[in-house]
Amino acid sequence: MFQILSSLLLAAAGLLASPAIQAESEIRCTVQSVHDGDSMRVQCPGQRGTTPIRMRQIDAPELEQAHGIQARDHLRKLCSRGSIATIRTQGRDQYGRVLGDVHCENKSVNEEMVSSGSAWLYDRYVTDRDLYHLQDQARSAKRGLWGGKSPQAPWRWRYQQRN
Fold first, then answer.
1. pLDDT digits 0-9 by tens, 45-92
2. pLDDT for 131-153, tens place per residue?
3. Which of 1, 68, 69, 109 qualifies as a cystine partner to 61, CB 3.0-4.6 A?
4. What separation, in Å, do the N-terminal and C-terminal C-alpha atoms of the chain show?
5. How far is CA 79 from the centre of its chain?
6. How many CA atoms lie within 13 A of 144 on its CB side?
């Protein structure tokens, strides 16, 4: 019985872990949809179905949060449906989405989202300390979410919604 369960679990894990997307690699995929300001679904060569992507190091406002719709719309401009996204993958998040740094039209989308004031740096996960300079510039210029009265970090907003 244990061997059968082990075999089934290994087979299921093989279906979930795409051979085309490894822990750290670079993939080129077609953007299918943008859900919010820090995630999208892409179609990658050789794969059935779409792959969820979560942009690394940033956290955009939730759709129900102030500036959430604007953040999503800005990401849709940067990575429109049908465009090619180059994703430097960094593993997966707790929801199974591929984490990565995204480039569309030869632009770093992660950087563009921070620079435009469409996303916060997610302090807990920042590895590129230079991104703080972009966030500071956006804050000083009151771009995007920084133009509001008292911008609230998405992780704090989600915490308040749960409690």
1. 999 999 999 999 999 999 999 999 999 999 999 999 999 999 999 999
2. 999 999 999 999 999 998 899 99
3. 68
4. 43
5. 12
6. 29
Give yes or no: 76 in active site: no
Which of 41, 76, 92, 97 is flagged as catalytic? Answer: 97
Instruction: Return the SS3 of 27.
Output: strand
The reply to whether 62 belongs to the active site is: yes
Q: Assess whether 105 carries a catalytic annotation.
A: no
For the residues of 35-75, what is the DSSP string, one character each?
EETTEEEEE-TT-SS-EEEEETTEEPPPTTSTTHHHHHHHH
H or E element, residue 128 = none
Dist. CA 9–CA 28, nearest whole Å: 29
Q: What is the CA radius of gyration of the chain?
A: 17
The rounded distance, in Å, linking the Cα atoms of 109 and 146 is 18
Domains, the chain, with CATH or none: 20-147 (2.40.50.90)
Share of the chain above pLDDT 70, in %: 86
Looking only at the bridges linking them, the beta strands covering 26-36 and 84-92 are antiparallel
